[in-house]
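Please check the following.

. . .
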Amino acid sequence: MKYIVPKKEVIFAFLIVVVYTFFAFFQLGDTHSIQTFYRENAKDSTQVEIQFKSMQNVRKVMVFLGPKEKQMLTFRYKDENHKIKRVRHTVNSVFTWDEFDYSMKANSVMLILPKSCDIGEIAFIDNNNHVISVENVPAKFASMFDEKSLVPAQPTYKNSFYFDEVYHGRTAYEFIHGLSIYEWTHPPLGKLIIAVGVLLFGPTPFGFRCMGTLFGVLMLPLMYLFAKRMFRSSNIALVCMTLLALDFMHFTQTRIATVDSYLVFFLLASFYFMYRYLTEDRLKPALINFGLSGLFWGLAICVKWNGFYSGLALFAIFIFSLKGKLKNAFHEKKKSYIIGILSIGLLCFIIIPATFYLLCFIPMVHGTPSQAFQQFLNWQALMYHYHSTLNATHPFSSLWWQWPIMMKPLFYYTQTFPNGLKAGMDLFGNPVVWWGGMVAFAFCLFAIIKYRSKNAAFLVIGYVLSYLPWVFITRLTFIYHYFPMTIFCVLMIGATLHHFKSTALNRTVIALALVLFIMYYPIITGIPTSPWYVDTFLRWIPIAF
């Protein structure tokens, strides 16, 4: 069989995906974590005596919870003067290592557990930062002290949940184990996809995060195909794919166990297939692409209701294209086209998405079909009530107009280390993509007026109508709500560069984006870095590190 050497641009695209994949999965999270849990729902608090081999100097206690937050633990012991001391501590976050200073000297501790508890591990740490061995623990409570090799030196993002992982990751675990779910404010599909990673790699930080990261990787070849189809230029397609890979939000948001990766991937696919429909002159392939656009849009709604906003853009693009389709491409097949488009539209934008939506709620309902359907309706009412009446505040919330100018990044995680280094994780965009996207948006408006550019019109409609609904949202919002709009920023930059046809300009844009990515890499990944470096070189963007 004859071997065909791939085209140069395909090799480049493959290498970009490989390099991105390495860095996306690098230090994503620990692949080993606490697996056994002590779970109890008792009528009263429970006591267990913890004995050490000898008199020990305890410096701190570390606790890892299962899927039940805010558990108050009481530690009682006799000091060297035989006086009884008591310390209470509330552990707040699930699947997260919590540590608290607990300076004492004792040979045993009485642990008093709450009535309802779910604890994975408790570790007593000495002055040398070693885990103190315990003895004679009753078998019933052994699961709280049986994985001391997994006790970390200190909590970090690699061994613990951070930000909204305590909602979405936790709910994925609850789906797997048939527990009462905690996060119900969004449809279940995103959490069910997270659960796939947990089933494959276990309830570890890596397992919870890997599926979102995989979807982030898959966005790159999809962006390449989209840009290649739109601009008929391999160079611009590579530029667009590289800019998406170098965007800070894309990199950071796809490495956290929340559901936005899936939302944006499905929306990107939906707009890609809508564009293929618009540019396809053959009836059958056009209808297939139209149907695929609807199916992916339906999947986006199954992740978050935000997907409805992009539906406005898809509908507007479809309506504006009807006249041209009927007049030109399918003039001789007008009847077949109208029947096909109505049938496919009804099936793939309404019936099948509605079916997907119903099916993804199966893990949240039970009983007879009528009872299950009533529960399904109740969940919709609860979600609507939550989002329409939410009156919460958050120190890093932001308004819609602040997002593209990155006025208020979102601070995900922070940790200070004994050696003076500090780790932090900010969520914001690469200025080349976000600020460059605003410049490109202005150019696309110009191109619509000056050149009647259909590509520019497609991108402007997609961007504006996906973004516009947020102007009227009064509930708490964050900069990650801008994530779906970044795909249009990338493509609008591609449209601008394609117009000028300057290899030097293309390379300059990529080089600048790469330099900024390298500069900000420590604070978009959470790796330890010098506060001096951050203060000296990175503060020109209002990061919260």
In short: The chain has two domains: 38-150, 168-537.
